[in-house]
Amino acid sequence: KNVLGTELGCCCADVHGSGIGTGFYRDGYCSTGPDDAGRHTVCIEATEKFLAVSAAVGNPLATNP
């Protein structure tokens, strides 16, 4: 379930046309398991401004560099 209590939606199941999804299991969902040391559990829609500020402080989050 997501933070709203509804079912998780697919975040991205085809990164850059690769056929590979996001998330620990690369299935496009923010699901995780005991082997996920990085905690791949967040998926957001961000504005260009947010991505620019994040990159400027050393945390580049954009999937399209």
Strand content: under 5%
From the N-terminal CA to the C-terminal CA, the straight-line distance is 30 Å
Total number of strands: 0
> Shape from CA axes?
globular
Number of domains: 1
Cα-atom Rg, whole angstroms? 13 Å
Oligomer: single chain
Summing up helix and strand content along with how strands pair, one would put the structural category as little secondary structure
Which stretches are poorly predicted, pLDDT < 50 over at least 5 residues? none
- Report the helical percentage: 10-25%
Summed up, the helix count is 1
InterPro entries: DUF2237 (IPR018714)
Features:
single chain; 65 residues; little secondary structure; DUF2237
Characterise the protein shown here.
There is one protein chain. The protein is built from one helix and no strands. By secondary structure, the protein is largely without helices or strands. The protein has one domain. The N and C termini lie far apart (30 Å). InterPro entries: DUF2237.
